[in-house]
Amino acid sequence: MWTNKHHIMSRVAKQHRVVFVNFRQQNPLNFVRTARRNDPATRVTLGNFWREPAVRHELPKLEVLDVWTPWLNFVGSGHRLRRKNEFERRVRVVGNWLREQGITDAVLWVYHPGYGDSVKSIPHSLLLYDCVDEYTAFPEFKNNKTWIAERERQLCAAADVVACTAPSLFESKQLLAPGRTHFVHNVGDAEHFGKALDPALQIPADLEALPRPTFGFIGAVSDYKLNIDWLMQLARARPQYTLVVVGPTGIADPSTDVGQLRALPNVQLLGHREYATLPGYLKGFDVAFIPYRINDYTRAVFPIKFFEFLASGRPLVISALPAVRDYWSAVRVAETFDDFLRECDAALRDDTPEARERRLQLAGQNTWESRTNKLLGLVEKALARA
């Protein structure tokens, strides 16, 4: 699933060399199977399962550095000391690799606050923290909110530039990095998702076979943000509608239970689909929706899918997400389930060519190219000051 970091770095790589560090968990059973085949890329270290960092070239200027995380480090991963040690181990591995390559002036572009100020140990010319989420509200940190907040405070203090994707993130982080914090909100891949407008594009067979009208969501299915209750209520209130959910379940929230939702006859949970196929799914939706819960996490969320859905031209119904308030006039907004039901009905019945053109215009104005250029501009100004 493409997130902020994938979109940004694939575009930065059109202008600059990018080393994208990809941390991968090593399953011990898979390791043993691989080792038995005498794979020269693996070796055993006492008390650990390990692979040396390896580089994959994805684009002419984009290298993916795979760093294998020992499985044992995830046992009891809720413990703050174990988490701290794992983040600092990653920093050592990456720092050593960069030194071996003779890279001492990298721009360090960090997305996770768990690294704290340990990243300062990596030789660099500039440190940027791209803050895209409120991590203290993540389910995985529900027992460690104080710890992750302190690590983020350290990272903000060390960063030369802090970029925030939502207004509430900007308000909180500018207190931690005064004068160095900037609001650069999320955007969408208008070119890619605009393919949904192509008459020649085929709707995927598993969607085209479903009864119409179809209402659809594309993204991770996690109970802490997706309002599964609203989906079940909508499916029951409008049995003539088909509700389609495309995306993996429970990645960030393993407690997510979609059993009751899946049991409803007019709901289809299709699971993960490749990024390249997503415009076809949007083309097959009569209405797209983003029915998020409103809580401490989603108040700081500016969904990437917001502009992606707009780029498809489809009518869009959303929860009253504060981060996208400036764009509420272009979509249908629901604060309660009754609102959600009414707006879904209206989106199907009352959409106009003028409203559709407004959605496409906004999508075209808010692209990853524009966000990347803004961020690179902040980097260049900070480097010039330094």
What does this structure look like?
With 386 residues, the protein is of the alpha/beta class. It is 37% helix and 20% strand. The chain has helices spanning 4-12, 28-36, 80-100, 145-158, 167-173, 190-193, 205-208, 228-237, 259-263, 278-284, 304-311, 337-349, 353-365, 368-385, and strands at 18-26, 42-45, 48-51, 54-59, 62-70, 106-110, 124-131, 161-164, 181-183, 214-218, 242-246, 267-271, 287-290, 316-319, 332-334. α1 packs across α14 (368-385). It starts with a helix and ends with a helix. Residues 28-49 and 72-77 have low confidence and may be disordered.
What structural class do you assign from the helix and strand content?
alpha/beta
Radius of gyration: 22 Å
Largest sheet: 6 strands, parallel
End-to-end distance, in Å?
Answer: 36 Å
Q: How many strands?
A: 15
Poorly predicted tracts of residues: 28-49, 72-77
What coarse outline follows from CA principal-axis ratios? Answer: globular
Q: List the secondary-structure elements in sequence, H or E.
A: HEHEEEEHEEHEHEHHEHEHEHEHEEHHH
Number of helices: 14
Oligomeric state = single chain
Strand percentage lies at 15-25%
Instruction: Give, in spatial order, the strands making up the sheet with the most strands.
Output: 12-11-10-13-14-15
